[in-house]
C-alpha cells in the first residue's frame, strides 16, 4: 500500500482539474481571438462603425491563451509542492490562497470586459 494514497490522489485530482480549466481557458481564448472573423463575416453587408475595435478581441484572446499557459505552470508547481508536503513528516500551515484569489479576480475582470465588449459591438451594429 502506498502511504498517504488518498491525499496524493486528491492532490492529483485537483491538479487535473486545474489543467482542464487551463485548457478550457486557452480554447476559449482562441475562440475569442477569432471572434473578429465572425464579426466581419456577419457584418459584410452592414456599414461598420469606425468605433468598432476588432483588434481588442485578438489581444484578449491572446491574453487568455497566455493566462492558460501560466495557469498550467502554476498548477504544476503547486502539485509538486503539495506532493512534497504530503509526504513530509513535519506539519506545515496551509498558505495557498493568494494565487487563487489573483486568478479569480483576473478571470472576473476578463468576464466583465467580454460582457462590455460584446455589448458594445452589438449596439454599434444597430
Automatic annotation (TrEMBL):
<keyword id="KW-0472">Membrane</keyword>
<keyword id="KW-1133">Transmembrane helix</keyword>
<dbReference type="Pfam" id="PF02656">
    <property type="entry name" value="DUF202"/>
</dbReference>
<feature type="transmembrane region" description="Helical">
    <location>
        <begin position="59"/>
        <end position="80"/>
    </location>
</feature>
<feature type="domain" description="DUF202">
    <location>
        <begin position="9"/>
        <end position="82"/>
    </location>
</feature>
<dbReference type="InterPro" id="IPR003807">
    <property type="entry name" value="DUF202"/>
</dbReference>
<protein>
    <submittedName>
        <fullName>DUF202 domain-containing protein</fullName>
    </submittedName>
</protein>
<feature type="transmembrane region" description="Helical">
    <location>
        <begin position="101"/>
        <end position="120"/>
    </location>
</feature>
<feature type="transmembrane region" description="Helical">
    <location>
        <begin position="15"/>
        <end position="32"/>
    </location>
</feature>
<keyword id="KW-0812">Transmembrane</keyword>
Amino acid at each position: 500500500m502506498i502511504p498517504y494514497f488518498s491525499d496524493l490522489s486528491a492532490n492529483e485530482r485537483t491538479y487535473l482539474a486545474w489543467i482542464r480549466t487551463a485548457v478550457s481557458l486557452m480554447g476559449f481564448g482562441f475562440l475569442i481571438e477569432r471572434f473578429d472573423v465572425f464579426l466581419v463575416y456577419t457584418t459584410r453587408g452592414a456599414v461598420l462603425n469606425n468605433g468598432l475595435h476588432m483588434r481588442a478581441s485578438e489581444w484578449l484572446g491572446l491574453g487568455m491563451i497566455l493566462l492558460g499557459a501560466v495557469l498550467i505552470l502554476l498548477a504544476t508547481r503547486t502539485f509538486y509542492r503539495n506532493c512534497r508536503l504530503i509526504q513530509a513528516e513535519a506539519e506545515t500551515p496551509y498558505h495557498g490562497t493568494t494565487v487563487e484569489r489573483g486568478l479569480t479576480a483576473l478571470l472576473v475582470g476578463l468576464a466583465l470586459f467580454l460582457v462590455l465588449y460584446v455589448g458594445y459591438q452589438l449596439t454599434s451594429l444597430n
